[in-house]
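Aggregate trends can hide what the representation actually does to any particular protein. The sequence in question and its structure tokens are set out directly beneath this paragraph.
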Amino acid sequence: MQAYIAVTVFLLTYALIISEKIHRTVVALLGGMLMIFLGILHQEKAIEMIDFNTLGLLTGMMIIVGITKNTGVFEYLAVKSAKWAKGDPWQLMLALGTITAVGSALLDNVTTVLLIVPVTFSITSELKVNPIPFLITEIIASNVGGTATLIGDPPNIMIGSQTHLGFMDFVIHLAPPAVIVYILTMLCLKFIYGKRMKVDESLKERIMSFDERSEIKDAALLKKCLFVLGLTILGFVLHQFVHMESATIAMGGATLLMLITRINPDRVMHQVEWPVIFFFIGLFILVGGLEETGVIEGIAKKSLEITGGEMVTTSMIILWLSAIASAFVDNIPFVATMIPLIKTMGTLGGMQNLDPLWWSLALGACLGGNGTLIGASANVIVAGMAEHRNHPISFLGFMKVAFPLMIMSIIVSSVYVYLRYLM
């Protein structure tokens, strides 16, 4: 009976998250609290289910980025890109897309689009070109770039926290397909948009007159931020060797930056996206209810019956299922459900090496988010910012461009996973 109750609560919560009628943080917390109120989990067990490594990593990076964005460095990079492109729309799209992809890999994709989109609107307004192709490019680039590292996309953070996989593991195994997918994606976008965008020469000259150095608001603060960010990324690279969790590295970097900048913590804490943190808390408790009642184990057994425990079939099913599911529902709750499922499948099936399954899940969930406008958090945020500026991105308009590109990226990922891990 408890298993039926847990599944009912989980499905109702998932349905409400998809409907977007109520804020997803409220829905996730409601689902988590119901698991406790209905006796599925005791409070102590519910707290055990919360992955504080994921929460610490997210919070630490949010603090570092929140302080860094006050320096104007992203505005500087955007203006520098526009001048590098000499006002040419396609070259500008390539430059902004690349900055978005790299920023998403080193910071995280949600933060990166929050910083780059306002500047994109400013530059496209000066050039008098439609900003929609640029925004679509940045959405896709943010999800592709975020695929490449442990800290780039929330699904990767969650996978890394629940496995033995570290920062360099993600770079070594996921950066190569991410780079290939990004190059192919930009070539496709050039074919789609390249000839449509024309800019008057006088407007190009106006862009060239911009002074990117004026965008730097606080040079001393920028030096401190870049120093701490560099130390933090070095910490991520070495964290397995020094036996420290990624959350410790991120929170250590955030603490050091607050110390050397002497910024008021009250001001800094406003930069943390607390609704995201509490969304994760509710989600962990919700999935914990399924784990505690044996639902996850039951699904794992059924999955093993279907695949016969065969690694190639299992990897491909996880990759494509993750991609299609993540295109239509938020990839965070999907990955939260899949992680214990894969662990249980590995235990029951006697699989010694689960790495191909983890890489399949990461590639499917991160790249699948490009399929529709609601597939990932970055997509929803950019769409909201565009609508606020009277340039709405239509669901079907985005899907016509992005869904075929997403399918292309999963085909590339399938070939990559098969050749590297399953031959």
About this structure: The chain has a mean pLDDT of 86.
